[in-house]
Amino acid sequence: xxxxxxxxxxxxxxxxxxxxxxxxxxxxxxxxxxxxxxxxxxxxxxxxxxxxxxxxxxxxxxxxxxxxxxxxxxxxxxxxxxxxxxxxxxxxxxxxxxxxxxxxxxxxxxxxxxxxxxxxxxxxxxxxxxxxxxxxxxxxxxxxxxxxxxxxxxxxxxxxxxxxxxxxxxxxxxxxxxxxxxxxxxxxxxxxxxxxxxxxxxxxxxxxxxxxxxxxxxxxxxxxxxxxxxxxxxxxxxxxxxxxxxxxxxxx
Length: 252
Ligand SMILES: [Fe+2]
Known about the structure:
Layout: H1 3-6, H2 10-13, E1 14-16, H3 22-33, E2 43-47, H4 54-76, E3 79-89, E4 105-111, E5 118-123, H5 125-131, H6 136-143, H7 148-154, E6 158-160, E7 170-175, E8 192-197, E9 207-216, H8 226-234, E10 239-240
Parallel strand pairs: 1-2, 3-10
Antiparallel strand pairs: 2-7, 3-9, 4-7, 4-9, 5-6, 5-8
Helix pairs in contact: 3-4, 4-8, 5-6
This protein binds fe (ii) ion.
The site of fe (ii) ion has 3 residues, from loops.
């Protein structure tokens, strides 16, 4: 696989919420994120603009997840359930990693406008593993990109999200699966994510509305209850990662 083939163009990953209603937006996000082979990126970004407020933005995230659940039910039978939904101030640079979750899951991350510059990069570790004749889990065991050799191996499979901007509300969906590619049982094919914080600033916030979503049998009650989803939409609380900011007036 060449560098050119593995780095996805903007047209494959960047969407504008203003161009679509939620149903057709969900179809586009589902196609790009919930891939079962390597013909799609496994991630995408939805630009929701600058004119909405945080609560409306989080409501859009929940509406998008519900519309994607309806698509998932019609395409595959199971539905989608939240495994977690919380708000974080995150200003730590990370190596390429998978968030802890079941074999088939994806992240829906809602980035709010901030003064803090950062970049997001997605690495197609499932494709890299496949090219090496390994399952995604074997790849992580043998070539974990937290270490230099694995990182170098994975580099040709990385795409920096070109439309990621600090000035807009943006939803980034990332396939976070570890299921292997198999002819017998089709499954989501995952990616790793990396955040590079270019200008960390303790006096500023970088708020991420962070949700993890999994495929579950239809009829399974959502693990994040309806009341907890309403709390996620309406709360002003932002959890801190690594340090307190008691000098900021919305810190609780
Ligand atoms: Fe993560």
